[in-house]
Structures are given as C-alpha cells and as structure tokens.
C-alpha cells in the first residue's frame, strides 16, 4: 500500500494548482460566467498546453495518463478552483469514447483534442431516461450507405460549443435494453440537428439537442453496431471519477473558506469559531472530508478493475460524495451566514458546483439503489 | 381536545375558496405555481385585491382596518391560499412594522401610516442588519444624532429585502453610545427619497437581485418619525422579531412546496415508471410530509395559545428552526426530483425565445429555489441563535 502520488502526478498537481491560483480567481471566473459562451478559450488553450487534456488519455491513445488517478489529480484541482470549462465533456466523455472505440480515421482526432483544438459533447441522456444509461429511444436506421438518426437528447453539456457530438442511438432492441445501442460522430452543422442552448446554474452551458432525420455515413459509427453499452458504462465510470474528484476539490475549498471565516468573523465580541455549536459542526465537516477523500481514492484506484468491482466502487463513491457534498455545501453556507448567499463571494459558486454535481451521472439515490443491486449480485 | 372544524369554520373555508376561485388572477397563480418571479406590480395587484375584500391584514385589529382573524381562520386561509398558488403578501409593512406601530406608535403615526400600508401607498423595507451586526444585532452602529427637529442618520444597513421597490424603511439606529448596547437603540421611520440615501443591489447566489445595501450619509429625518421613546428601540425590535417568527414556520409555503414536489415526481420518469412510484423517493417524500403534518399542528397550537393572550416565547424559536428545516428539505426534494433538468439556470431564459419550451423544464427553477432558500435558516435570527434562545429559556444556560 502506498497513498502517495507518483512524481509525475505530483508535478501535474503542483503545476495546475499554481496556474489556477494565479489565473482563475473569483473575479475572472465571474466574467467567464457572465459571457455568452460561458467559457474562456484562452484558459482552455493554456490548460491544454500545461498537459491537462493529455493527462486524461493513455499512452496508447496518444496521451500520458488516462488512469483513474490521473483523472482524479486533474479534476480535484479543477474543482478546487471552481473551473467551469468543459474538460469532462470534451476529453473524458466524448473524447474518451472516440479514443476507446474509434477506428484509425476517428482516433486521429485525439491528437487535436489533446492539443486543445476541438470541443466535443456527449449527447446521450434523453428527456425520460433520467440516470438510466441504457434507456435510449433515439433511433438509428440504415438507409443504403447512410444512417438516419431521429430523437431528442436532454441537457447536453457543451453542445453549442462542440465541433462534433458523440450521439447514442438505438439500432435494435427495446427501449431499456443494453443491447442495440450504437454511437455516432455527428458534426455540429449536420442537416436536421437543432441545438437549443441555455446557461447552467453552476456555470457552463448545455442544450436540448433534436435530431430530425440527421443523415450520417456508416463511417460515422464508433465501434460495432449495437454494442456500445459496455463502453458507455466504462466511460461514465471515468466521468464519475472526474466528477467526484472535482467535487472533492470544491469541498476542500468550501471547508478552507469556512475555517478561515470562523476565525475572522467576530460577533458578540469574539470569533464565531469559538462558539462550540459552530466549532463542532466544522469538526464534523473535516471528518466527512477524510471519508470523501478515501472514497474518491477507492473509485479512482478501481477504475481499471474488472467491471463488477469498478462499478461497485463507482456507485459507492458517487453516493458518498453526494451526501458529504451536500452537507459541506449547506453547512459552509450556514456557518458563514448571509455573506455566502452573495454571488460575488467565492463560496457561492463553489457550493453550487458541489450540489449540482449530484445531478450528473446519477444522484445519491440512484447510486444507492445501484450499489444494492451490485452487491446483491 | 377536538380536531374537527366547526360549522362556522367550514363556512369560512368555503368563503375563502370562493374568493380565491373568483378573484385570484390566473396569470399570477400560474407564475407562483411554476416558480416564476413576481414583480412589484404583481404583488401590488394581489394586495389590492385582498384589501378590497378586507383581507390584506389578517392579524390587525378591526379598528385599524384589519380582518382580526383567529388562529384557525388564519390557518384555513394559509392552507387555501397555498393550494390555489396565491402570491404571498409582503410582510415588512403588514406584519412587521404595523404591530409595532399599533403597540408603541402614536395616534398620529397610526392614523397616517396604517391606511397607507393597506392602500399600497407605501412599500416598506427593513433596516436591521449591518455588515458587522448580523446575529449580534445589538452591536449595530448606524447612528442618529438629534439636531433640532431632526435626526441626522449616518451608516449602513444590509440584506434589505426588496429595498429596490421600497419608498420607506424602518430602521434600528444608535442614539446613545454611552450606555449598554441594547439601551442606546431607537426605532426610526425613514423616507427612502431623502437626500443622502443610496440603495445598492446585492446579487444572490441564484442570480436574484432580492436584497440590497442601504447607505445613509447625513440623512435628515424629522423627529416625529421616531416610534415610541428614544433608546427603547430594542424592546420594539424584539417585539417585531417575535411577530416575524410566528409567521416563519411557513406552513403554507411547505404545503405548496410539497405539492410541487409530487407534481414533478409524477411527471418525471425513473426506470420506466413515475419517480413518485420509486419506493426510495416516495419514502423521502412521506417522511417530510409526516413532519409537516405535525408541525402544522404545532403551529396551530402555538398560534392559538398566543391568541388567548399568552405571548409566544420560546415556541416561536422552535417553530422557526423546525419550519425552516422542513422547507429546506422540501426544496431539496424538488431539486432531486427534477433530475438532470435541475441543472439549467432557469426555465425563464427559454420562455422568452421563439423556440418551444422543452417540456421537462416545466419543473421550474427548482435548484435556484433550493439555493435561495438557504437564507431561511440564516435570516430573522439564524437557527443557531434560535437554539441559543431555546436553551437559555428552558435550561437557563
């Protein structure tokens, strides 16, 4: 057993932390949040240059990481700084699926992704699929040399900015079957593709994506027809390592801000942290932080394990981080008082990142039920 | 002990239902139902409708133009208004300032200000908190110095809810710095149009411009705007806070919120079935509903006791703590229920566009409401302050 980061990962962590501390303060981020695109292309390019995206792909794929702990290191730092740029969507989800399943022509995109030159989105969930990964109703019908896509995708993060979308669609099987789901690379200017965008509460943008007789060549299919479900599940597992690591980083920031505030803010002639009611509450948060960190280590360290072990740890961690995250976000706001309710204070954004993370890739309840199913099996 | 409603009470409920059915504008109830934002004009319109029926001020004695309802009548109205998605009235004039004036104000003050509250001529806001005086309200520094027929006010107030709509503010100001903090505070009524007042909006974490900072620089206030006696303001402030707290259980809000949760959870599909049929989610909803049923009764018990002459003391602190816990839990459930559709910033941003509104977004801005209502356990004396009061009163600690 060894809980230290490798030298390379330690260096990446230090570099990232320093860069984000210097270049991504509250005022900078608030400007990004108010912009129409909801992201900064300069920050994107600079982080790509620092190797943030390359660290999310394996050496065989053209990167220099790609393991659970690489993803965890990157996203913990992004979370600590409250970064809203869609690295998760472009690199871990859509880019990862291209790297995992693509043929030579398709995987040629990975180099551009790592260099920061491509924006991508994964259009998978649908209005009635909630957190169920296999529930796909969008249809893919072969017509001669072409494949025709029809359906609607819900809350597709980064769809407006994306140069290409990775779209899931059903080629066979029933609405809830794992079998029969395929993935397709769809360019953003494809005829019949409508993208209706909106801002997200915790930063960034998403869209409702409608596919109305969108026609793509057979060469747009990623991997084998109807066999994408296991790859999707594995990528969502990687996305959950990223998401829970990001949340852990954000929780660290929340606790750090709260501890500082308890020491500085005076009421009744003394720092409010000297009141036992608040001191004990802060202690509880710090205990939960240790639990959260261990849980993220379990998820990251098991990302390369066999499916049953991997998924059990992913669901356990997503559940625990959802619970601990809510506690940290709510109690941090409560212990601060009014100041934490204001948009210009750092904690406001951080708390929103933490809580809204529970709405991606399955919430606390979804993963509790999944954990029960996986342990019963 | 009798839990049934009397014939008079049943008749009153029918009267309230008829009134809401006939008089509540559909566009307003639709806004409330979907979590839309009510503007100043919306609130004024609804308050005028209530006033025409003599129901704008349920707590006020009849001699001041109030409805003078008893606890059960208020409870019935709250319940029916929540069911009908009626907007809430703005409490600052009606249920915060008015009771203070009626108890401690002069005849002239009551004659002048109370009718203006009912008619909507004045929109009041509250000048209590300051950047350095939150939970420790008595440490406030905004000062008023007597100068002939005027007070000269200098300082800053903060968290002034809906101050952007207000033309009047009631303030706690320091009038004596030489005595114990609580004994040097006075209660002043200040016209917001007086030179030297500046209102700056504070944007909250859900993006709403709901609260403000109010700055006072050499603001001249006529001495007749002092309520009661100089340096007795703390007594009046405590009286006001007690009134604020009897309403702060927010039973009506919670009932409406719980219905919204069920509506969302019936429409939301999880694993091929309505989310409301998911045992895990249904259990969460049931749990909070059981708590709410009990709290609604606690609220009735306490309000009845208050009506019979016993001033609510520690019980109002208990209601505040439990009431906000339940309301926040309901906000949390609404957010959970909406699933991925809780993530968009707000549905309104799409309503203005030419595109059709994606139907699942009709859950409304549930996550924004969840974040906004974190304030419930902070304002009006944080829940930690309330627990301190409960401990002090019941254990002398």
List keywords for this structure.
heterodimer, A: 377 residues, alpha+beta, four-stranded mixed β-sheet, four-stranded antiparallel β-sheet, 10 strands, 50% helix, globular, B: 397 residues, 13 helices, 47% helix, 14% strand
Can you describe this structure?
The complex is a heterodimer of chains A (377) and B (397). Chain A has helices at residues 7-23, 26-34, 41-49, 68-80, 87-101, 104-107, 109-114, 229-264, 276-301, 307-336, 346-356, 364-376, and strands at 120-123, 139-143, 146-157, 164-170, 181-187, 193-199, 205-217, 221-222, 266-267, 270-271. Chain A is globular, with a radius of gyration of 21 Å. Chain A is of the alpha+beta class. Chain B has 397 residues and is α+β, with helices and mostly antiparallel strands. In chain B, the strands form 3 sheets. A 4-stranded mixed beta sheet of chain B has the order 1-4-5-8. A 4-stranded antiparallel beta sheet of chain B has the order 2-3-7-6, with no helix packed on it. A two-stranded antiparallel ribbon of chain B has the order 9-10. The interface between A and B is large, with 51 and 56 residues.
For the largest sheet of chain A, list the strands in their spatial order.
1-4-5-8
Order of helices and strands of chain A: HHHHHHHEEEEEEEEHEEHHHH
The amount of helix of chain A comes to: 40-55%
Low-confidence stretches of chain A: none
Average of per-residue pLDDT values of chain A:
97
Write the layout of secondary structure elements.
The complex is a heterodimer of chains A (377) and B (397).
Chain A: H1 7-23, H2 26-34, H3 41-49, H4 68-80, H5 87-101, H6 104-107, H7 109-114, E1 120-123, E2 139-143, E3 146-157, E4 164-170, E5 181-187, E6 193-199, E7 205-217, E8 221-222, H8 229-264, E9 266-267, E10 270-271, H9 276-301, H10 307-336, H11 346-356, H12 364-376
Parallel strand pairs in A: 1-4
Antiparallel strand pairs in A: 2-3, 3-7, 4-5, 5-8, 6-7, 9-10
Chain B: H1 7-23, H2 26-33, H3 40-52, H4 71-83, H5 91-104, H6 107-119, E1 124-127, E2 143-147, E3 150-157, E4 168-174, E5 185-191, E6 197-202, E7 211-222, E8 226-227, H7 233-246, H8 251-267, E9 269-270, E10 273-274, H9 279-307, H10 314-338, H11 348-351, H12 366-372, H13 383-395
Parallel strand pairs in B: 1-4
Antiparallel strand pairs in B: 2-3, 3-7, 4-5, 5-8, 6-7, 9-10
């Amino acid at each position: 057993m060894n809980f230290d980061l490798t030298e390379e990962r330690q260096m990446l962590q230090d570099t990232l932390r320093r860069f984000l501390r210097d270049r991504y303060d509250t005022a900078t981020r608030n400007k990004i949040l108010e912009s129409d695109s909801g992201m900064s292309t300069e920050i994107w390019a600079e982080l790509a240059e620092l190797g943030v995206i390359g660290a999310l792909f394996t050496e065989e794929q053209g990167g220099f990481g790609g393991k659970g702990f690489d993803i965890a290191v990157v996203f913990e730092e992004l979370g600590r700084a409250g970064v809203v740029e869609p690295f998760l969507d472009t690199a871990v989800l859509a880019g990862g699926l291209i790297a995992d399943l693509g043929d030579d022509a398709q995987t040629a995109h990975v180099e551009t992704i790592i260099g920061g030159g491509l924006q991508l989105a994964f259009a998978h969930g649908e209005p009635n699929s909630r957190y169920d990964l296999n529930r796909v109703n969008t249809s893919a019908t072969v017509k001669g040399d072409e494949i025709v896509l029809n359906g609607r995708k819900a809350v597709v993060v980064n769809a407006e900015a994306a140069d290409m979308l990775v779209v899931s669609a059903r080629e066979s099987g029933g609405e809830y079957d794992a079998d029969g789901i395929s993935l397709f690379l769809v360019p953003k200017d494809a005829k019949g593709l409508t993208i209706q965008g909106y801002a997200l509460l915790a930063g960034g943008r998403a869209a409702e994506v409608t596919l109305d007789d969108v026609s793509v060549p057979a060469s747009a299919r990623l991997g084998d027809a109807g066999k994408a479900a296991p790859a999707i599940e594995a990528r969502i597992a990687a996305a959950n390592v990223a998401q829970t690591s990001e949340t852990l980083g954000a929780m660290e920031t929340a606790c750090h801000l709260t501890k500082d505030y308890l020491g500085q803010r005076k009421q009744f002639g003394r720092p409010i942290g000297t009141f036992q009611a608040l001191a004990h509450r802060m202690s509880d948060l710090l205990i939960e932080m240790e639990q959260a960190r261990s849980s993220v280590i379990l998820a990251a360290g098991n990302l390369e394990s066999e499916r049953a072990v991997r998924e059990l740890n992913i669901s356990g961690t997503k559940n625990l981080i959802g619970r601990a995250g809510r506690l940290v976000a709510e109690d941090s706001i409560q212990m601060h008082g009014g100041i934490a309710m204001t948009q210009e204070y750092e904690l406001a954004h951080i708390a929103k990142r933490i809580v809204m993370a529970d709405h991606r890739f399955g919430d606390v309840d979804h993963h509790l039920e999944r954990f029960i199913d996986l342990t019963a099996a | 002990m009798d839990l049934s409603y009397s014939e008079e009470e049943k008749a009153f409920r029918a009267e309230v239902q008829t009134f809401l059915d006939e008089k509540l504008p559909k566009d307003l109830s639709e806004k409330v139902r979907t979590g839309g934002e009510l503007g100043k004009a919306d609130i004024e319109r609804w308050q005028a409708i209530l006033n025409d029926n003599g129901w704008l001020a349920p707590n006020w004695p009849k001699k001041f133009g109030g409805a003078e309802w008893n606890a059960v009548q208020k409870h019935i109205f709250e319940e029916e208004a929540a069911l009908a998605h009626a907007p809430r009235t703005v409490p600052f004039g009606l249920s915060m300032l008015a009771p203070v004036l009626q108890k401690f104000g002069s005849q002239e003050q009551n004659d002048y200000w109370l009718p203006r509250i009912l008619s909507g001529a004045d929109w009041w806001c509250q000048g209590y908190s300051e950047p350095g005086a939150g939970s420790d309200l008595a440490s406030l520094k905004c000062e008023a110095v007597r100068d002939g027929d005027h007070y000269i006010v200098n300082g800053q107030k903060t968290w002034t809810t809906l101050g952007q709509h207000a033309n009047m503010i009631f303030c706690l100001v320091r009038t004596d710095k030489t005595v114990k903090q609580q004994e040097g505070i006075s209660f002043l009524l200040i016209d917001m149009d007086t030179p030297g007042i500046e209102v700056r909006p504070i944007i909250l974490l859900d993006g709403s411009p709901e609260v403000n900072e109010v700055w006072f620089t050499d603001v001249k206030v006529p001495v007749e705007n002092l309520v009661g006696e100089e340096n007795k303001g703390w007594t009046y402030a405590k009286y006001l806070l007690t009134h604020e707290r009897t309403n702060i259980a927010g039973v009506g809000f919670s009932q409406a919120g719980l219905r919204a949760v069920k509506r969302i959870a019936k429409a939301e599909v999880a694993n091929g079935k309505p989310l409301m049929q998911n045992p895990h989610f249904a259990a969460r909803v049931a749990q909070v509903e059981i708590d709410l049923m009990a709290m609604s009764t606690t609220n009735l018990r306490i309000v009845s006791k208050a009506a019979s002459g016993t001033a609510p003391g520690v019980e109002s602190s208990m209601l505040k703590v439990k009431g906000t816990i339940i309301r926040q839990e309901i906000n949390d459930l609404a957010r959970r229920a909406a699933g991925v559709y809780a993530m968009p910033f707000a549905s309104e941003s799409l309503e203005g566009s030419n595109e059709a509104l994606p139907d699942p977004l009709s859950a409304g801005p549930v996550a924004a409401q969840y974040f906004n209502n974190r304030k419930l356990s902070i304002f009006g004396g944080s829940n930690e302050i309330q627990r301190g009061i409960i401990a002090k009163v019941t254990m002398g600690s």
